[in-house]
Structures are given as C-alpha cells and as structure tokens.
C-alpha cells in the first residue's frame, strides 16, 4: 500500500525556506489530485504551531497530518526529500517528510503500519536520507 501511494507522489528538492513551506510543497500533489483541500495543508501547519513538533517521528523524519474534517477527501501520502535540513521550532532538523491524509479516523492505519515497518528497519531508515529518485525510494519499500 505504501509503494502504491508514493508512486508518482515523490519530490526531491535542494532546500526550502521554512518547515511551513516544506509542508505546502509536500501537500501539493494531494491538492492537485483532489485528495485534500488547501485548508488541510494549512491545518497541518497549524497543528505544529499549536502542538509542537510531535509530527517528527524519528530524527530528521516528519509525518505532517491533520484531522479529516479540515479538508481531506481521501487517503493519500506523499514523500518530500529536502537535501538541506529544514529547521522546525526548537532547532529540530528534518530532511524527509511523509505527508499523510485520511478521510476517516482509521482510514490510514494500514498506510501508517507500512510506514512503521519501513522506519523500524535501521538500514532502510538511514537509506531514506540518500535516495535521490522515486525509483530508489520505491526499491526500499517491500510492498
């Protein structure tokens, strides 16, 4: 499921001015596909402003998301790799973003389970920082 969601939804950039802009860039394919509204991207940013850096799952990896009622029309995920780390509040650097949307409280659980499996493998986790193409990323994912 993870591979299916990320196919055609990966971006690789050198740098970005802010973590807010990184979230907007990462959300853009989902907006273009009608999976989320612009309001959902803003809600992801507001979540960090209100609740802190809880979206940083592991060092340098973040999973921005928001509640479905803020503009999600379906389940989706994108991958954004930023070569130069983006600084979050508290000077926490992030290079890899998995932008997640769900249209129900549990509609994304399979996707999160697949992502958890990928991130729990230390070798694969480290390789995420070196991928430079969608093909390289998809080769790391088992399903």
State the total count of DSSP E strands.
5
Number of H- or I-type helical stretches: 6
CATH level-two architecture? 3-Layer(aba) Sandwich
* CATH class type: Alpha Beta
The CATH topology comes to: Mannitol-specific EII, Chain A
Helix/strand structural class: alpha/beta
Number of domains: 1
Looking at this structure, what is the CATH superfamily?
Answer: Mannitol-specific EII, Chain A
Estimate percent helicity.
40-55%
Could you state the oligomeric state of the chains shown?
single chain
The H/E string reads HEHHEEEEHHH
Mean pLDDT: 92
Termini gap? 6 Å
Report Rg: 14 Å
Rough shape? globular
Low-confidence stretches: none
Characterize the largest beta sheet: strand count, sense, and whether it forms a barrel.
Answer: 5 strands, mixed
Strands ordered across the widest β-sheet: 1-4-5-3-2
Which range does the strand content fall in?
15-25%
Descriptive report:
The chain is an alpha/beta fold and 143 residues long. It has one domain: 3-Layer(aba) Sandwich (Mannitol-specific EII, Chain A), CATH 3.40.930. It has six helices and five strands. The protein has a five-stranded mixed sheet with strand order 1-4-5-3-2. Helix 2 (19-32) runs antiparallel to helix 3. It is globular. The N and C termini lie close together (6 Å).
